[in-house]
Structure formats: structure tokens, C-alpha cells
UniProtKB/TrEMBL annotation:
InterPro entries: DinF-like, MATE_fam, MATE_MdtK, MdtK-like. It comes from Cellulophaga fucicola. NCBIfam families: matE (TIGR00797). This is Multidrug-efflux transporter. The chain crosses the membrane at residues 46-64, 93-112, 132-153, 165-184, 196-216, 236-258, 278-296, 316-335, 355-372, 384-403, 409-431. It comes from the Bacteria.
């Protein structure tokens, strides 16, 4: 059946994907907002949550890339009318993902203090980091399993069930955060930062259980591992490896930013924790149309429907930019209330406000990069995405970060580096799509 590319069909995928997407960073945002208001050691707790959250995000993003790879392959086979040929692939991808997650988990858990010392954590913040990570890290395989299931649903052109999974996890996390962090008088003693870690871990467990049952009940995909290995598993692994390298370079930028902010002092890492959580939240909000491009793009490519693929790219960029402009306006309207959601430490808030305008003004630039990023994943262009991130990180972000440090730009220099990073990413993807698919469009 021919795929119709219009606002209704795009939003049918994009809106649930947006809700699911913003639910992911909401877990970290909730931790940061609640622990940042702890009466004692609030600033140190906020800093520790930011440092650990950045490191865990790096691990999850690097190994969670099989979600995009499996989604791309399934959607392409669906578009070509050959879905039955890949029924054994998803479970093999899930086992591959979980095995990798266990290896990485065991490789970090014994050197956790050294990891956070490298990130410039010290004294009370280092103590909090080690304790917080020691609990949250066990949710790592659970999250990667959930991500893989979400990728399967996306490949099947369904973003509604991933939305349900993510929403339940986010709401449960908020509820448990309040209970565990602050306690219940006469029933449960306050656990403070450790309580936030337990809330996240339990939420991730519930999400994994729901994902398991939805996959069993709502699809024909079996979770029984069958051999021989599927012929497409090799392509999936290669695609995933390219995305691993891409995610690694992406997280090098994020980790370097955390390291430089931590080195500036406690108030700066506290402010950076607020800033990066707001940045990630807005990124996932915009990324809903990237998810629609991922899902529909793979299907259209599988069907070799280049006119509709070109039309899809134009529409999702337009919608993504409109959403980013709406967020820009809201950011300026609620400039100060947004910061106060995260902390009552005025010194951290003043530092955050000094760069918040950069984050807000860069949102339209981010929207182009994120939307095309999602589209390219659906098209299977993982190698180009890898090269784009490597170039943007090591030829754009890193030089600008250290140029800003040399020139004494301080905290502002970190966020100028992020803006340059996103500008390079967006420009490279627009150029590639235009140069590759315009000639194909003209031949049809």
C-alpha cells in the first residue's frame, strides 16, 4: 500500500514519539529538580546527579543505537513488502544488546571512583557520585532492553506503545522520587540522593516488564532465540558499530563539557546540570519529527518512493522548525521560572541564566540537525552520520571549547561550543540529503 505523506500521518507518528522522547530525559530532569532542592547538600547533590547522569547517558546512547538500526531494517523490509523475512532478527538484536550492556556494566563498576575523579568530582560530590552510580547502573541492561523493543515497534510504524512505556516510567519515577528522596513521616526515612537512584532503577525495571509483555501480546515477534544467525544481523551490527562510534564522539563532547564545567567550580557544574537537562529535554521534544522521518523514511526507501521521501524531508523540517520556534518563545517567557524548577541555590541559578539565552536561540539550529539525524537513521546512512559527528566534534566542538577556555569565556564558552557543534551537524546533513536524493528524484 502506498504511503501518504501528510501532516496527519506524520503527526500520528511524531506526537507519540515526542511524548516518548521527552519522557526519557524527564527521568534525569526529575532527579535533578528534586535533589537540587534537598535542604542539606542540595548543590552537591545536584552536581553529582548531573555528573552521573551525563556518564550514564553516554553509556546508554552508545549501546542504545541498536534501536535505530533495528528500526531502520524492519521499516525498510516493511516498505518492500518482505517483513516475514526478518522475524527472527529482533530477538537476536535484543540478546546482542543485553550481552554488550552486561560487559560494559561489569567493566565500569569496579573503577567507578576513578571514572568520576577523571570528571573532576571531588570531596562530597565524589562521594555522592559513587553512591548514586552504584545503584543506578543496574538499570542499564533494563533500559537497553526497553530501547530495543521500542526500536522494533518503531520499525513496525508504531510509536504509540513506546509512548505508553515511556509515560508510565516517567510518572512512576516522579512519584517514587518524592517518596524515596524526602521520605514519608513515620513510615520511610528520607534517602536523599540515593532515593532518587532507587526511584530511577525501579522505574526502569517496570518499563522493561511492560515492554516485554507488549512485545509478546501486540506483535508476532517471538522472544525465543533461534539459530542460525539472520543474514541481516551482520548489517545490523555494522550499522550499530557506526552508531556506537557516532554516539561515542557525541558523548565525548558532553563529557568534556561536564569536565570543564566541574573544573570551573561547584556553582558551574550545578548550573551546567540545569542547562544540559533543559537542552536535552528540548532536543527530545524536537526529535519527535526526526522519529517520524526515521520510521517513514525507511519505509519509503524500501519502496523506492523517492518523490514522497523528498516531500517527507521538506515537511518534517518545516514542522520541526515550527516546534523549535514555539519552544524558543516559551523559553524567553519562562526564563527565570524554568531555572527555579531545579534549584533554590541562587548562585547556581545566576550562572545558569547567564547562558540560558544561548540555549534558547540555538533551538532552530538544533531542530534541523535532530530532524535530519532521525531521517538518516531510517535511511540506513549510519556511516555518514558517524563521519558527521566525528567532524563536528573534533573539528568544531573541541577546538571551540578550548579556544573559549583560552580566551577566558568561561561557562559561556562551553555553550558557544555546543552551538557551533550543532550548526556543523545540521549543515552537513542537509548537504548530503540534497546531493544524494535530488538526482534520484529527478530520475523518477
Amino acid at each position: 500500500m502506498k504511503t501518504i505523506v501528510n501532516l496527519k500521518n506524520i503527526n500520528k507518528l511524531a506526537i507519540p514519539a515526542t511524548i516518548a522522547g521527552i519522557s526519557e530525559p524527564l527521568l534525569s530532569i526529575t532527579d535533578a529538580a528534586i535533589v537540587g532542592n534537598i535542604p542539606e547538600y542540595g548543590l552537591e547533590s545536584l552536581a553529582a546527579a548531573g555528573i552521573v547522569g551525563s556518564f550514564l547517558s553516554m553509556l546508554i546512547w552508545i549501546l542504545g543505537q541498536t534501536r535505530s538500526a533495528i528500526s531502520a531494517i524492519i521499516s525498510q523490509y516493511l516498505g518492500a513488502g518482505r517483513l516475514d523475512e526478518v522475524k527472527t532478527l529482533p530477538v537476536q538484536a535484543i540478546f546482542f544488546n543485553i550481552l554488550l550492556s552486561i560487559i560494559i556494566l561489569l567493566s565500569t563498576v569496579f573503577v567507578v571512583e576513578e571514572i568520576f575523579m577523571f570528571l573532576k568530582a571531588k570531596d562530597k560530590i565524589l562521594e555522592f557520585c559513587v553512591s548514586y552510580y552504584g545503584i543506578r547502573v543496574w538499570g542499564f541492561p533494563l533500559t537497553l532492553f526497553t530501547f530495543a523493543v521500542m526500536g522494533i515497534f518503531r520499525g513496525l510504524q508504531n510509536t504509540s506503545w513506546p509512548m505508553v512505556i515511556a509515560l508510565i516510567g516517567a510518572v512512576l519515577n516522579i512519584l517514587l522520587d518524592y517518596i524515596f528522596v524526602y521520605g514519608i513521616e513515620g513510615v520511610l526515612e528520607p534517602m536523599y540522593l540515593d532515593g532518587a537512584a532507587w526511584a530511577s532503577l525501579l522505574s526502569q525495571g517496570v518499563m522493561a516488564i511492560i515492554a516485554f509483555f507488549l512485545l509478546v501480546l501486540k506483535t508476532d515477534i517471538s522472544l525465543k532465540l533461534r539459530f542460525p544467525l539472520h543474514p541481516e544481523l551482520g548489517r545490523l551490527v555494522i550499522m550499530s558499530l557506526n552508531l556506537f562510534v557516532r554516539a561515542l564522539s557525541l558523548n565525548i563532547a558532553l563529557i568534556l563539557a561536564v569536565r570543564e564545567a566541574t573544573d570551573l567550580g561547584d556553582r558551574f557544574i550545578g548550573a551546567h546540570t540545569i542547562a544540559i537537562n533543559v537542552w536535552l529535554f528540548s532536543s527530545f521534544f524536537i526529535d519527535g519529527y526526526g522519529a517520524a522521518g526515521n520510521i517513514l523514511g525507511g519505509k519509503l526507501l524500501g519502496a523506492k518512493d523517492y518523490p514522497n521521501l523528498w516531500n517527507l524531508a521538506k515537511k518534517i523540517i518545516q514542522y520541526g522548525v515550527i516546534v523549535s520556534l514555539m519552544l524558543t518563545v516559551l523559553g524567553f517567557v519562562f526564563y527565570h521560572p524554568i531555572g527555579r524548577l531545579f534549584s533554590n541555590e541562587q548562585v547556581a541559578l545566576d550562572t545558569f541564566y547567564s547562558v540560558f539565552y544561548i540555549i534558547i536561540l540555538s533551538l532552530p539550529i538544533n531542530s534541523i540537525a535532530f530532524v535530519f539525524d532521525g531521517l538518516f537513521k531510517g535511511l540506513g546512512e549510519m556511516k555518514y552520520l558517524r563521519n558527521t559527528l566525528l567532524g563536528a566534534t573534533f573539528l568544531g566542538f573541541v577546538p571551540m571549547l578550548y579556544l573559549g577556555k583560552y580566551l577566558g569565556w568561561g561557562f559561556t564558552g562551553i555553550w558557544i561550543a555546543f552551538t557551533v557543534w550543532m550548526l556543523i551537524r545540521g549543515a552537513a546533513l542537509v548537504f548530503k540529503f540534497n546531493s544524494k536524493f535530488r538526482p534520484l528524484l529527478q530520475k523518477t
